[in-house]
Design goal:
single chain, alpha+beta, nine-stranded mixed beta sheet, 31 strands, 30% helix, binds guanosine-5'-triphosphate, binds sulfopyruvate, binds manganese (II) ion
Length: 618
């Protein structure tokens, strides 16, 4: 310890003399710390150490021993709280700062040489200007702290889909979450070998100052820098930052797609499995759909989970679109998760799970959130760390409180979860949270129209991002917060991909969230969504009927299996109706949105807009 501090001091005072600090900090023979001779990694690490000046640098090797040590230290320092180990073995609770509970879209940047490359839907700054500004914030930010080096892999080992990142962070919470959400440790460094092809991720908690919070992507350098936050989506850099914002750039260049999509396998009573990928905005039902349990009347079906949030898609040798889930865990919304809505998610979180911003049940050291089964606990500690009772009139868990749980623990995890080649996608489903307008389900006429359907998605905002909740905003492909380049180019990329996929999936749109005049959900949702998935897959096989409408093919009420479901025919008909007056207003709002892109809007999208308008007027 003393030796390296001494060496470090020498290094900082000599300044101009090039000393490899990482190598000094990581003496030979201490394998626990030094995991590579990769020069690209070591010189980058060096630079980051010089910038942030941590007291110590620890490599994450992926061992159970190291993981447990980190849990113990985090508990000792109050960063984590150890829950009832009999009821919830390996489970811990974490509370973030009150001002740091969700993604912050207004502080998220895409820094490319030209503003046009980031496009009108992203915050932009010149990379040089931003690096300078952030260097100011990062300088000395890890003084007195430990820097953890997390080598991680997005995608299965040995898969052509997979990509490597290294995250440097001063947060044990980040390390422990990354160890669940991604494949971490020595094996990743072995896969990297001496390659310089890895995403360079830097995170410092600093002061959790919302005024100086930055989530910044430099796609041209495969670099992500984030500071002053400790909330998942802002700091677990393998997730939205890499697997969507950086990866969407990679996919654009390399001819594949990174999407905000769940992946599920639906097995029919004959034992055949077909795969569906579905893009819904944050907190709009991906995790729930991915783990769906069939209703009693459809007991012969089974849903297998491949992914609940992100899909990387490539064209397979067979001319179909194939998908992998780059993650290895679920960072799921806790409120609303119950044995009724999502028993599989609940079962997944019974061990080895980190809960963030939920209520601590002080009667038995377990956790609780709004919407969980049974009576709320008589007393607890709320997400802000204050004493709580059910009578206090405040929420015990934050609406965006989450669980981080290993995917392998999911009772319905797909046998293809680790498949290097992924799974073949039969249908792509877009969906949003719309009280009105969008019917329960419809099918696009063809790929180009399907891309238009995705590009015109809209949804009510949720607690997953800071800001107003319940406001309808346009959210193409559920990617408005996550597309790492100009969204007009992203639409063009979708259209191009369609031309390159000999056997493209069919494209659909769903809406589980239609409300009646009393503000009640008209569709039961959750497990009953299987009834809609069945129609979708039957359409893919040319087995189900549909009627042509102005917006696409819709089922008639009789085409949806409602056996055992208490829904009246009028409600179902309403759910499956297209109100032309409302849709004409919708078209106006779509036009307004597309104006942002000016001349860059692909002709295929403009053409579909014109066609929709003429069908509505026809
Ligand atoms: P992110 O992790 O933020 O990307 O969210 P997600 O898309 O995975 O959403 P999730 O499945 O966690 O659901 C978010 C909220 O929507 C929860 O409160 C669910 O209970 C609710 N929800 C999910 N599916 C349905 C449904 O079919 N109907 C209704 N009414 N609510 C649903
Ligand atoms: C989302 O907001 O879409 C999430 C959670 O999946 S976060 O990781 O915070 O982005
Ligand atoms: Mn998400």
């Amino acid at each position: 310890m003393k030796l390296y501090i001494l060496l470090y001091t020498i290094q900082s005072t000599v300044g101009c003399i090039q000393i490899n600090v990482a190598q000094l900090l990581v003496p030979e023979g201490k394998e626990k710390r030094k995991m590579t001779k990769n020069q690209a990694v070591l010189s980058w690490l060096d630079e980051m150490i010089q910038l942030t000046t941590p007291d110590e640098v620890i490599w994450i090797d992926g061992s159970e021993e190291q993981r447990q040590k980190l849990y113990d230290e985090a508990c000792a320092e109050g960063e984590l709280y150890k829950l009832n180990q009999e009821k919830l073995p390996g489970c811990y609770l974490h509370r973030t700062a009150e001002n740091d509970v969700a993604r912050v879209e207004d502080r998220t940047f895409i820094c490319t040489r030209t503003k046009e490359d980031a496009g009108p839907t992203n915050n932009w700054e010149d990379p040089q200007v931003m690096y300078k500004k952030l260097e100011g914030l990062f300088r000395g930010s890890m003084k007195g702290r430990t820097m953890y080096v997390i080598p991680y892999m997005m995608g299965p080992y040995g898969s052509p889909f997979s990509k490597i990142g290294i995250e440097l962070t001063d947060s044990r919470y980040v390390v422990l979450n990354m160890m669940i959400m991604t494949r971490t440790g020595k094996k990743v460094m072995e896969e990297l070998g001496d390659s310089a092809d890895f995403v360079r991720c830097l995170h410092a908690k600093k002061d959790i100052d919302p005024e100086n919070r930055y989530i910044v992507h430099f796609p041209e350098d495969n670099t992500i820098w984030t500071i002053n936050s400790g909330y998942g989506g802002n700091v677990l850099l393998g997730k939205k930052c890499f697997a969507l914002r950086i990866a969407s750039n990679m996919g654009h260049k390399e001819g594949w797609m990174a999407e905000h999509m769940l992946i599920l396998g639906l097995e029919n009573p004959q034992g055949e499995i077909k795969y569906i990928a579905a893009a819904f905005p944050s907190a709009c039902g991906k995790t729930n759909l991915a783990m769906l349990i069939p209703p009693e009347a459809l007991k012969g079906y089974k849903v297998w989970t491949v992914g609940d949030d992100i899909a990387w898609l490539r064209i397979g040798k067979d001319g179909r679109l194939w998908a992998v889930n780059p993650e290895s865990g679920f960072f799921g919304v806790a409120p609303g998760t119950s044995t009724k809505t999502n028993p599989n998610a609940l079962a997944t979180t019974m061990k080895n799970t980190i809960f963030t911003n939920v209520l601590l049940n002080t009667e038995d050291d377990t956790v609780w959130w709004e919407g969980l089964d049974g009576e709320p606990p008589k007393k607890g500690i709320d997400w802000k760390g204050r004493p709580w009772t059910p009578e206090c009139g405040e929420k015990g868990a934050h609406p965006n409180s989450r669980f981080t749980a290993p995917a392998a623990q999911c009772p319905c995890i797909s046998s293809e979860f680790e498949a290097a080649g992924g799974v073949p996608i039969s249908a792509i489903v877009f969906g949003g949270r719309r009280a009105k307008t969008a019917p329960l389900v419809y099918e696009a006429f063809d790929w180009q129209h399907g891309v238009f359907v995705g590009a015109t998605m809209a949804s009510e905002t949720t607690a997953a991002a800071a800001g107003a909740v319940g406001v309808v905003r346009r959210d193409p492909m559920a990617m408005i917060p996550f597309c790492g380049y100009n969204m007009a180019d992203y639409f063009a990329h979708w259209l191009e991909m369609g031309k390159k996929i000999p056997n493209p999936p069919k494209i659909f749109h769903v809406n589980w969230f239609r409300l009646d005049e009393n503000g009640k959900f008209m569709w039961p949702g959750f497990g009953d969504n299987l009834r809609v998935l069945n129609w979708i897959l039957d359409r893919c096989e040319g087995k189900a009927k549909a009627q042509e409408t102005a917006i696409g093919y819709l089922p008639e009420a009789a085409d949806i299996n409602v056996e055992g479901l208490a829904i009246d025919k009028t409600t179902l008909e309403q759910l499956l109706s297209v109100d032309k007056t409302v849709w004409k207003e919708e078209v106006e709002s779509q036009k307004e949105f597309f104006k942002k892109f000016g001349d860059k809007l692909p002709a295929g999208i403009a053409e579909e807009l014109a066609k929709l308008e003429s069908r509505l007027n026809g």
